[in-house]
């Protein structure tokens, strides 16, 4: 009995993404471009995993800068390709600061990735995330529970999804239960984007990536990624790194595929969560554009 | 000449904890239950070692969430088994936030572990720790100097202890000099607890754990644990993880024993503080309930 | 065509520092004294690399304490040998806090190291760094762009340097382009110091260290040091550790030489940025005073 059946969902049929699909070439180009250009993506992120986010961005070929003051973030946005914003470990001043920052990024047409950590928990976080509805990110990277919660906070839901609600920072929902919420959030992002672009990446046992039209399931990765803190945050940061050189759907696919391949390699080389983290950064560094772009990708058939 | 003699203390006689003491079975159960249930323990902790705390909780079998806003911490407390609070790297708003949080935890009967980092230093920290006297934690995990300072701040001391005072975050006192202070603090915790439970763990060359009645000395561990930052904080965090499934004395014993065994194993596998930290997380993951529960434990004879 | 020629600078001729130069003996003594005395150097530093700063200080033989509240920092300054202040990841209250702290350190004649991360970016950072002009540090540790920016912020420049301006936290300038700025900043530090001492260390492909009179170029290190976050911050922290036992020029030289030797060793032992960081901490621990003090040092001829 599959997980999808267990959760009462009937999974839609999928087919393998063709070897010559233009998306694969675009993913290859994104991975290669980051290695060639070392783009700067800045972050406003939580204190738990901030070091891993920066190191993952460096290991993937980019550079990193982390800031919290609007004057810093807005100054740096003018000189970098994309920004990563993660709402973990909130401080009191973030509510005003993130309002100012997201408005400025929106006005500038600057691309950014949102990681709505623990969406649905805490009055301050709820206020922050709700306010982002009208100045939304270019990409959302989250677990299933967070995507479902964001969909509800933004009033996009039409009652299809049945979230169990958040459980701290861990997802209590299967990725597939967030499929329709992810599609709705992606369409909302695209409607607000000046170029009509946007994507949502849902991390889980099998990742899901969508631009609101096409939906992809990315098998692989390794369960040890849930035994270190920050694999998801680092994925959000590296998605911003790719967003410096590629369109949102391509950036989201490239980052998730790179992370799955790196997780598999690290699992083979390690013997516990400590050595896994070390090997994971080495793997991000070592894995090449060919390996990423030829990964198995399943597209949900329409 | 022993350290105890040097410091002018006569160490009380001890005897080995019997193989069939009920505490050993309870420690075994705690270690196994955490592996089976992956309980969530949240943390309000310092920025230096926050990543290691989370990773140690994950490697020990639990899950982690870190927050600073009262609305976050109080929301999460309602859905998790225990909370870890560490007063390192204070920010200005912590004084009010920690007052609100500790009162709410007390009113809810929620179990929590206090790590009174650098107790005795700084007017803000002194105010924060003093205010905790009336809404105290379930477990205190600290070094000898910090336990002695907390005993004094809370007015529990009757002049027996002779603290040298704090020296930053490093202890300047032997664990055994804190014996009476630890007993007094533990009794204070139990008097304030609705179930009459509480424990104090003093970390050092030989750890000391007490519930205010029984006193245990835990030999072992490795000196390299003092050459990485955060072994003590991580121990506090994992004590909270065990506190989700076990009573305070058992949780304190289980966490300290797991850390000593992991430290010994990591020392054998590593060749410096960098590889020690990696191997330490791997060892937390690998060491089983039998190894922890059959450790040498010396009980102070009464 | 050399980099210096490319940037339009004519590099001054250098000669090797003699094996019996008194500086080498002083560097040897500093490294040995830190191992023997485990001095405490405290830090007020950014959240990205705070863990690596502390672990690098411990691996180099010292101890660490991190704080942000003036009452904490000023209390600890009274009991430690030196302080490290890094202006990355600013929070709103830092402007007032750092003003209070740097004035107190200046009044007490307490030695401290400034890491002017991203100098020139952000109105708050500019205000903080400008205010330090009159209560300056004992040592500045920075990349070339930051030294050039600090020289300009403090009004020391006479138009010789041609900074390209900051690019986030990465230097866009060669170390040698900062030579005259570094000399001017070092002279400013010395003029403000009650003992007339001070030094500037510029990190890059070839490090540059000066006390405003003598100028040294330190070849070596490894490019992987730029593929992990925080090698520069950790160098600033360890410079403060050495400043507990040695004069500013000696501390700056010893720390930079130790880091270059450790970087070379870590590069040989690792196969990516993850394992590099692990091996780097092991190397800081393993490298001895002889290796550091007999390093190649090139002195700019006068």
From TrEMBL, chains A, B, C:
Pathway: Cofactor biosynthesis; thiamine diphosphate biosynthesis; 4-methyl-5-(2-phosphoethyl)-thiazole from 5-(2-hydroxyethyl)-4-methylthiazole: step 1/1. CDD domains: THZ_kinase (cd01170). Its cofactor is Mg(2+). It is an enzyme of class 2 (transferase). Pfam families: HK. ATP binds at residues 141, 203. Keywords: ATP-binding, Kinase, Magnesium, Metal-binding, Nucleotide-binding, Thiamine biosynthesis, Transferase. GO terms for biological process: thiamine biosynthetic process; thiamine diphosphate biosynthetic process. GO terms for molecular function: ATP binding; hydroxyethylthiazole kinase activity; magnesium ion binding. InterPro entries: Hyethyz_kinase, Ribokinase-like. Its EC number is 2.7.1.50. It catalyses: 5-(2-hydroxyethyl)-4-methylthiazole + ATP = 4-methyl-5-(2-phosphooxyethyl)-thiazole + ADP + H(+). Coiled coil: none annotated. Substrate binds at residues 66, 230. Catalyzes the phosphorylation of the hydroxyl group of 4-methyl-5-beta-hydroxyethylthiazole (THZ). Belongs to the Thz kinase family. This is Hydroxyethylthiazole kinase.
């Amino acid at each position: 009995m599959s997980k999808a059946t267990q959760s009462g969902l009937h999974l839609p049929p999928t087919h393998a993404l063709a070897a010559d699909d233009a998306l694969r070439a675009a993913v290859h180009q994104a991975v290669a471009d980051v290695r060639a250009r070392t783009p700067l993506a800045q972050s406003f992120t939580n204190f738990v995993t901030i070091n891993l986010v920066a190191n993952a961005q460096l290991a993937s070929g980019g550079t990193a800068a982390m800031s919290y003051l609007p004057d810093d973030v807005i100054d740096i946005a003018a000189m970098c390709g994309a920004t990563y914003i993660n709402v973990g470990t909130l401080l009191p001043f973030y509510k005003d600061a993130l309002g100012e920052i997201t408005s400025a990024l929106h006005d500038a047409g600057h691309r950014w990735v949102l990681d709505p950590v623990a969406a649905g928990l805490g009055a301050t976080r709820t206020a922050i995330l709700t306010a982002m509805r009208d100045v939304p990110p270019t990409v959302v990277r989250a677990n299933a529970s967070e995507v479902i919660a964001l969909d509800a906070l933004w009033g996009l839901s039409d009652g299809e999804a049945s979230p169990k609600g958040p459980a701290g920072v861990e997802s209590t929902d299967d990725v597939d239960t967030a499929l329709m919420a992810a599609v709705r959030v992606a369409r909302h992002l695209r409607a607000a984007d000046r170029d009509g672009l946007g994507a949502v990446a849902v991390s889980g046992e099998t990742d899901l990536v969508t631009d609101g039209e096409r939906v992809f399931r990315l098998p692989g990765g390794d369960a040890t990624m849930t035994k270190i803190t920050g694999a998801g945050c680092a994925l959000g940061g590296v998605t911003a790194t790719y967003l410096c050189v590629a369109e949102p759907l391509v950036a989201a696919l490239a980052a998730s595929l790179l992370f799955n391949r790196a997780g598999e390699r690290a699992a083979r080389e390690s013997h516990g969560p400590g050595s896994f983290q070390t090997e994971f950064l080495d793997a991000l560094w070592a894995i090449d554009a060919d390996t990423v772009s030829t990964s198995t990708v399943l597209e949900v058939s329409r």
